[in-house]
C-alpha cells in the first residue's frame, strides 16, 4: 500500500437496487448506490455506456450524484429516458466501481376495471371464477380478496 492509499475506499451503499418503477405524475429521485472516501465523483450512464445528459424539466443529474426524472405528461414519454437501463459509477483515488444495471420504468395512471369472468354451473356443482385484470396493469395489481355483496368470502 502506498501512503496516499491509506484511508481511501469505494463501496456500494445499496447494490440491491435492480428496478425502479415510478408514476409519470410523480417522477422519481434515484440516489447513486455507491460512495467513497475521499468523496467519490458519481456519474450516471445508460446501460449502453452512453453518458447521461440533462434534459430540462425531464431528467437531471444533481451534483450529489442523484438522478432525477421529473413528472411528465403521456405526450412527453420517451422510452430512451423513461423506460431504460441505467448504471452509476463512483470514482476517487481508490479507483472506480460500477453499480449493476438499474431498470427504470415509468408507468401511466389510467383508469381500468377489474371484473369476474362469467361462468355457468348447475346447482350443487363447483364453479371456478377468474378475476380478469387488464394486461396494461396486471403486473401492478394483485387480488387480495373475493367478495359477494360487499362481504369477504375468501380473505
Automatic annotation (TrEMBL):
InterPro entries: Ig-like_dom_sf, Ig-like_fold. Gene3D superfamilies: Immunoglobulins. This is DSCL1 protein.
